[in-house]
């Protein structure tokens, strides 16, 4: 292995966007776009999101007003679901934005009631007030957000329709989970939650350059320890 092949050495900035880079690779016969994480796929220009919108929901701009320091503050989550085979099952994924730690949960089904039940169970297991906010996409599976927000005193927001970049960390993490053991066409009803969580735990133990080569789990636990000893957090 030569020094230039080691990650972190010989790096240089590429003066173009990711979309432009994908187009360049697509036009080059030396590369196969299907080997890339996005497989060359992107939404067409002028794409409009047609999924239902949440009534009286709080948007991403509301989060910026309520939590102006959310980018530097521990306890803010990005959430989504990974949908399984024939859209009959799913996995709830949450990512803590400061530590990049991934949390995966298995609901009984894909309905809003199923998502509510599993999130409620999980939030009862974690220290109260540890997490300050969650931002979801506009999927109907999160339509019962008030039943999560009010009892657990956690702020819930929604990204603008058709803008997954507003939850970019969660979207990227979902791609990693699919690659690591939860691929498309998986029937999650045939898996147990222990296996699903093992996939995210494995990813959480990989050092990240953006974390100064610490693991997401190390950073997460450090912040949890600080929060537990430096505030009035009460365990439920």
From TrEMBL:
SUPFAM superfamilies: Ribonuclease H-like. It comes from the Bacteria. GO terms for molecular function: nucleic acid binding; transposase activity. Residues 35-59 are annotated as: Disordered. One of its GO terms (biological process) is DNA integration. Residues 40-58 have a biased composition (Basic residues). One of its GO terms (cellular component) is cytosol. InterPro entries: Integrase_cat-core, RNaseH-like_sf, RNaseH_sf, Transposase-Integrase, Transposase_IS30-like. NCBIfam families: transpos_IS30. This is Transposase and inactivated derivatives, IS30 family. The lineage of its organism: Bacteria, Bacillati, Bacillota, Bacilli, Lactobacillales.
